[in-house]
Amino acid sequence: MTLEEKLGQLAQYRWSWRDDTVKEQYRQYIREGRVGSFLGIAGVGHTRELQRLAVEESRLKIPLLFAEDVIHGWRTTFPVPLAEAGSWDPAAVERSARIAAIEASAMGLHWTFAPMVDIARDPRWGRIVEGSGEDPYLGSVMAAARVRGFSRGGDLSAPNTLLACAKHFAAYGGAEGGRDYNTVELSERTLREIYLEPFRAAVQAGAGSIMSAFNEVNGVPMTANGWMINDILRGEWGFTGLVVSDYTAVAELQPHGVAANRAEAGVLALAAGVDIDMVSGIYGNDLEELVRQGKLDEALVDQAVRRVLEAKYRLGLFDDPYRYHDAEREKTSLLTPEHLAAAREMARKSIVLLKNEKEILPLSKNLKTLAVIGALADDRRSSLGPWSGAGDTADVVTLLEGIERALPASAKILYAEGYDKKTFTDRGGFARAIQAAKSAEAVILVLGETAGMSGEASNRASLDLPGEQEALARAIHAVGKPLVVVLMNGRPLSINWLVEGSFGAENVPAILETWFLGVQTGPAAADVLFGDYNPGGKLPATFPRSAGQIPIYYNHKNTGRPPIAGEHYTSQYLDLPFTPLYPFGYGLSYTTFEYGAPRLSVPEMEFIDTLTVEVNVTNTGKRPGDEVVQFYIQDEVASVTRPVKQLRGFRRIHLEPGETQTVTFQLTFEDLAFYNQEMQWVVEPGFFKVFLGGNSVEVQEARFEIRSGKL
Ligand code: GLC
Fold first, then answer.
1. Whole-prediction pTM
2. What is the pLDDT of residues 628-675, one digit of tens each?
3. CA 259 to each of CA 213, 249, 264, 274: distance values in angstroms, whole numbers, following the listed order
4. Beta bridge partners of 588
5. CB 648 within 8 A of CB 607
6. 469 near 425, Cβ under 8 Å?
């Protein structure tokens, strides 16, 4: 390979559909071997033509990689990842990723920039919607499930797999102020125990690539962070795959203030272990001279090229460069009945019942007149959520359509937009909405955010319902009919009035969290609203009462003055309760569950032991339903402060009315380990608590002792 051809493999460009000059320039790059991969192009027709250019008209005939953000489904759009995490069902999430891979690979894509595994403890951050919430254990389980789904655990031999890419390495969700791309400052202990865990899980599950993040961590931009990429990711974890920068992030080392020019930025990134430069054009155009002048070690280029070629080899592209460009497969793989059924099932499982006083839900299908209020109910674009890939609004069954299909033709549905679905700011639709509520037997009020209010760079300083939605809720509530609020949103919201009303006044009796559920929004939400499916989802992220409480998360430290209501000199606020509106892991059901006392296999544990924890869970209600049994631990006393709870296991189980199941969890020493003051990974002797329950607050507890620590 010439030096130019080597650097070409490290260059990734975004296909430009608009500009024919750029398209022609990129076709010429392909012929000259100056590009190794593209993002932004899909479809067998287009990708096959560019692949033909590469393998028939270039000197070395090296196949191209085609990449895209296949984040939650592809043409069959599944619920947003935060919603899927709320299912607490890794098998369903794996299936969602598998279907996404089947569809995206059928459209000529080899590589997905997913799973996004960033822990998010700040819901102001727009990208919380794209991950699995606040907890490293839940995040790790979901990361591994998605990697298995996309890439069969790293076995890319089948042409319906995708090279997975865990992103954004690392601590991207720790951005100060919840402002995307902002500075991240955190201890190495928090970095390792919270933010790195899901990446480690993704690597162990076989992720073939990692994307470095835009942000800095403690003064070093990730795109130039050799300690985290070369030493931790590659050195400690043994990752052998490729690392791709985020979009123009190599060039952004200049505004970060660590590179004076493009060439310096390129050298920093390559030396830090970033193999592919996404869209900056620096690797492909600014490094050749430096290598020739001996200012950049060609060995660094060679090792990056090797990783890129190995990825292409593992995808089977050297054997058959057209194996992902099969027009027949493309015709028969998208939006199949099986994929749609899986999307509906995933959506049903993702729904979280937050409130259901007086058992208003499920609603009867015999309602003669039902008001559906809120423009989000018919918002096709928002139903798909951010990062909706090849999702097409024409494929969406909206919430309104789902309700119409679920009810008999004789039912009268009065639909009123209530607010404008762009900004929610005007009250022009209130009168019609109020009239609809007055004329109906019951009201479904759809509130929340548009898809554009979360996702990349879409951060909010407030977690309140945008615009005049609360005013509308108060007005509709005042009509006095049975009222159900359905939330469509990309982040936890401080819906205090809906939940708790004001000063004892009545408030909304039933609230369903549906996030953005994808193409099957309507059928899935209607299944739950009318009782064809009993919701069992649990919150993957804490709902604060106010942005002023952020950061607020369940696995917090106890402090020396833990908050005690009424005790002034303890850690709390004058103007707000210190507790969240809804805690991590919270979710109700149309039935009820009862937990017995946890049973431990041994009262104390030695190094090699495994502690078995059992708990009986009974469905004490009248309906079959799913419960997510959650298992937490607490290290009571250690050489550094430890969280009051840490999730260490969960199981979504199904129970018939009256049925009892014994749920068992295994605890190993590794599960108890942490970084001590010297940053050694240890288990220390002492007492530990275990907690079991249906959320992170209402739990049954037991205790055991570790007689001798080590690791
Ligand atoms: C974006 C995102 C990243 C995405 C990439 C390509 O800026 O940060 O998640 O994969 O660019 O679209």
1. 0.98
2. 999 999 999 999 999 999 999 999 999 999 999 999 999 998 999 999
3. 17, 12, 5, 15
4. 353
5. no
6. no
* 69 among known catalytic residues: no
Separation of CA 508 from chain center:
28
What is the phi/psi pair of residue 210, to 5°? -135, 145
Q: Would you say 310 and 370 are in contact if contact means Cβ atoms under 8 Å apart?
A: no
Q: What is the pLDDT of residues 611-629, one digit of tens each?
A: 999 999 999 999 999 999 9
- Of 649, 491, 692, 521, the C-alpha closest to 581 is 491
d(CA 169, CA 463): 26
472 in Cβ contact with 521 (< 8 Å):
no
- As given in the structure block, the two tokens for residue 84 are 């899927």
* Contact status, residue 273 vs residue 234, Cβ threshold 8 Å: yes
Residue 128: name the closest of 631, 553, 510, 424 by CA: 553
φ, ψ dihedrals at 615, nearest 5°: -150, 140
Of 89, 135, 180, 246, catalytic: 246
C-alpha distances in Å from residue 342, one per residue of 87, 147, 330, 472:
13, 18, 19, 35
DSSP lists the bridge partners of residue 373 as: 416, 445
What CA–CA distance (Å, rounded) separates 602 from 89?
A: 29
pLDDT single digits (tens) 53-74: 999 999 999 999 999 999 999 9
Number of the ligand 1 atom closest to the C-alpha atom of 69: 10
What are the Cα distances from residue 543, in Å, to 333, 491, 553?
A: 38, 9, 9
- Show the ligand 1 pocket: residues with CB < 6 angstroms: 39, 69, 113, 167, 246-247, 456
DSSP letter (8 states) at residue 192 = I
Structural domains in the chain, sorted by start: 68-331 (3.20.20.300), 354-549 (3.40.50.1700), 593-706 (2.60.40.10)
25 alpha carbon – ligand 1 mean position (Å):
23
How distant is the alpha carbon of residue 67 from its chain centre? Answer: 19
